[in-house]
Fold this sequence. Notes:
Blueprint: H1 13-24, H2 45-57, H3 63-72, H4 74-79, H5 88-96, H6 100-117, E1 128-137, E2 146-148, E3 151-161, E4 166-174, H7 182-186, E5 192-195, H8 202-210, E6 214-219, E7 225-230, E8 239-247, E9 259-266, E10 269-275, H9 282-287
Parallel strand pairs: 1-5, 5-6
Antiparallel strand pairs: 1-3, 2-3, 3-4, 6-10, 7-8, 8-9, 9-10
Helix pairs in contact: 1-2
Amino acid sequence: xxxxxxxxxxxxxxxxxxxxxxxxxxxxxxxxxxxxxxxxxxxxxxxxxxxxxxxxxxxxxxxxxxxxxxxxxxxxxxxxxxxxxxxxxxxxxxxxxxxxxxxxxxxxxxxxxxxxxxxxxxxxxxxxxxxxxxxxxxxxxxxxxxxxxxxxxxxxxxxxxxxxxxxxxxxxxxxxxxxxxxxxxxxxxxxxxxxxxxxxxxxxxxxxxxxxxxxxxxxxxxxxxxxxxxxxxxxxxxxxxxxxxxxxxxxxxxxxxxxxxxxxxxxxxxxxxxxxxxxxxxxxxxxx
Length: 288
């Protein structure tokens, strides 16, 4: 067996402590991690956290890489590795069944704490959450992620707090999981979802307004617009369109509630944005 060459990268205890400390403060509140079978757990959730933090700080490439490092690195031997050691197969088995519910709890609570200390940008534009989905290459054990022959993918559905510059929500599905249903789950009341054309859904625009959740969403240029009211625009800026409309074709996919559409131009390219935000100027909508 070829031995992996591990780069000589030292990790200082204060660096590890800095990352692990806020996680350990949450441990007493985290839902209990239970064994999924008859065998007792070989690793507590606290130990899983330490493994994961160390793994990323050292930029390991695999479980094999990590296990080897825990045998050779003095800091890892004293602070990360169990007293009796752990085999690569046992470690892989444990990590495959790691506490997703517990990790989700930790993420959500760290987000709440971070919001209290991070500076807020773009206050005048409101509470902005960028929403998008992304395909992720999976590993062989993720059978649930198989969505087409010859390819295995999982999909992450993410909310990113633009004002604070940190992720706010994450949901995981198989690779063919639809993205639009997660908009309402990602947003809280009063927040504004910032989305690309893939999220254009006239039914969802109505639903979000019913839920007191806002949106600024790019729409297709050829979308049918029935004008209810035209807002004045300044001919000296890049805004060329600002109107309150019903989106879509009557009797087919038309919105039940009015929507504001702002059109602006960048480098000769026209963009149309649908929103329910009437408290902002057209320039502010374009900025979002």
